[in-house]
Structure formats: C-alpha cells, structure tokens
Specification:
alpha/beta, six-stranded parallel β-sheet, 26% strand
Length: 492
Amino acid sequence: MVKKLHPLMFVGTGSDVGKSIVATAFCRILKQDGYHPAPFKAQNMALNSYATPEGFEIGRAQAVQAEAAGIPCHTDMNPLLLKPNSDHTSQVVLHGRPIGNKDAYDFWKPTPNPFQKGGELDFRQEVCDAFDRLAARYNPIVMEGAGSVSELNLRGRDIVNMSMARHAKADVILVGDIDRGGVFASVYGSIMLQTPEDRQLIKGIIINKFRGDLRLFDDGRRMLEDLCGIPVLGVIPYYKDIHIDEEDSVALAQKNYQLSILNSQLIQVAVVLLRHISNFTDFDTLERDPRVNLFYTSNVDDISRADIIILPGTKSTLDDLLELRRNGCAQAIQRAHRDGRMVVGICGGYQMLGLTVEDPDGIEGSITSLPGLGLLPIRTTMTPEKTTRQVTFPFEGQECRGYEIHQGVSDTDEAILQTDHCVGTYIHGFLDNAPVIDWLINRASHGDSPSDVRGKSPRDLQAFKDEQYDRLAAHVRQYVDIDKVYQILTDD
C-alpha cells in the first residue's frame, strides 16, 4: 500500500516559467514510484485544447499530464477553459462544454447556470467540486497554478492559484525562471506578497531553465533560502532534447520560422502563421521527421517556395480568412496549388479551403460570410454547437487516431476530403500518424525523397511519447531533491 500524499501544487513567478512541464514531470515520477496521480488546473487560458474520451474539451497541458500519469484525461482535470477570441473576449468552456463568450471585466457578473435550471453559476464552486471529485479517485493530485502567483489586483477573484491551494490543503512549490533574469526579486517578491496564511503553504522553491555550470548558483541557492526561509528543492537545467507537447502560444516563439535553402533535399513544409492559430501541436510529429524542414510563416515568397503548405486550426476562421486575403497569403496558396504543390487544411484551415464560410448568427463575430480559397468542394456554416470527440479513421490500409474540436458544420460526411494536390480534415492529430506523413511526403516529393531518410518517420507515436516522459522524469529526478518532496507531502 502506498502512502496517502498531500496534493502537490506548482505555482509560478510568472507565465511560461515551466509550471506545466514540471507538473508533467512529477505526474510521471509519481506514477513510476507506484502512486496513482492525476493533474488538475482549475482555470486555463489556451487555444491548444484536447478532446476527452467522453467527447469534451480541456486544455492541452492537462491532457499531456494525464498521459504522463498513465490515465485517461477528464474534464475534472481542467474544469474551466478560456479560449481567447480577441484581446478582450474569450469563449468560456465549463466542464468541457462551451457556455458562451465573456470579456474579462464581465467574467464575474452573475450568469445563469447551464447545468442547473434556475440556478446561478458559481465558477469557484464548480472548480472546487471538480477537484474534490478528482481527489477522491487519485493519489496525489498534481496541481498547477496560472500566470504569476502574486497578482494582487486579482486576489479577490482568484480561483486557480492560492485560493485553490487553500481549498485543496496543498503543499505549494514555487517555480522561478532564471533564464529571463531577475530570479531573486521574482521569487522573493512572489513569496513576500502572499498573505501570512498563504505563505505558510509554500513549502519549496524550484529554479528552472538554468544555463551553464550549476556550481555557479550554489551561493545563490543559499542566499534564496536565507532570504525566503524556504528550501530550494532543485535547480533544473535548460534542455532542448526532450520533446513534450506545449500548450501556450508562447511556445510558438521557439518554433522554426525559416525556409531551409541550405539543404535542398529536405521537403519544405510551410505552416501558415494565423493570428488566431490553435492546436499547433498538430505539427510536432511532422516537424521531427528527418525528411522535412517545417517552418511557420506568413511570408508569401516562402509560401510560394514550399513543397507542402498547411493551413492550421484557428479560433476565428472568418477573421483569419479575411486577413489571409488582405496580406496576400490566400492568393499565394492558390498559386502554389495551381503549380502542383500540396495543400493541407486542418479544422479551421479545412473550412478556409472550401467554397464559402457562412456565419449568419454571428457566432464568431461581425463577419457574416466570406468566399473560401476554393480548393475543396465544401461549404461551411458556423453553428453554436461544438463538435468534440476522439476518432479513429482508416488511412492507407491502417487504423489511425485523432480528435475533433471545431465549431461549424460542412456539407460533407467525409472525415478526410481529398482532391488533386489538396487534402482537408477536421481531425487534429491527423499528422501524428505515420501512414499519413509517409503518404504526404511521397506525394510532395513525387518519389524523389532522398534514399538516406526515406521511411524514417516515427512508427509508434505513443512509444515515442512514453520515452520523452521518462526522459523528462529522469532529468527532474537528477536535479530536484525528490526525497525532500516526499517528506513535504507526508508531513503532518
């Protein structure tokens, strides 16, 4: 019998400090050590999402963390998801279902409860109930905060950081990013700005993304512990050779934006950089394929020189379609298609490749209708209902897997629609399947792919992911005092 552990929560000195990755590592470590962990993030803001086995929507990070823990993902792991529509408004997804759009100012105004007739929605109660259901089934819960833990102006409305830690009676570890500089001020300030009650919950500090010789931070470690009165549990070096799916759009800044002109043997794959791009993890497997150079671009010259052009998913199909026409990318894609280049559309990108996109009820905004790029014979109408489901589909004689998350209905029953030099689908994860990648590369190269790399696409994506989770866990074990973490999680 394994011991009952306290909930473990990772909060950050700011956004993109590595909370999600550290939480993922601990989901894997706890699983390896015989526990039955589950991830939890009360409220998430992200455009990268995932469909649960039941057909509901959650943030991608919690789906990844559940995979690292070896369990199916569930809406209780991320009960509240905000998907930005613009700088001011977001679609609110509660328990995996969209319940409308809200701006930040109106978010806390009274709202009818869609799950209880005549009731009023209480977001705080909804996320706490989700945590309680999860905590009854798993040991321990690995929790994640959002953004900075010390936003004083948001303290009264916080449902994801320290108020959630109080409800869960969690042991909190503060993660600081040394790579961006100012780690002493950010760590010390984040702790000192807490109330005395919340400060008592913070049991440790992890310094993340260290570059260089770790011995150079020995004095810094002691200084932080003296300043804060809290142990530094580890200093984790920056890594580049472990591949874990990212959730936040911040990760796009680390992507490749350059067409490779040095190696003409590689298949050049251009992912069109949309303003509201979503689920860019769709291209991670293809990006790792040694036969291709995958890059993100909105440059018409780069699009015209690519062998494969991909229109990705988007949270705002009509708005991004209008921008593609304005900046010339739409015309560049059409010209490339006429020249025999492969064009792929996924989800919103699939809709854009059709004949028209209609939004008579203003689901997405003020644009009611636009012509598509005309490469696929479909017409799409935006509807209030959202399709979210996991799917299997046959391709080249093999069973493949993916998931759908989309607004809008197209006038075809085909899961994958193909014409000459063009293919479109609503299926996210379409390009995670080796048969699809091989087919696409062979079509783009006309059989002229270099012999030294032909057929080297990943054969087993799940085995690859498991290897990456194990490597991440080993990396964190090497640099974090795991025994001390267990002591914290069992102390009365």
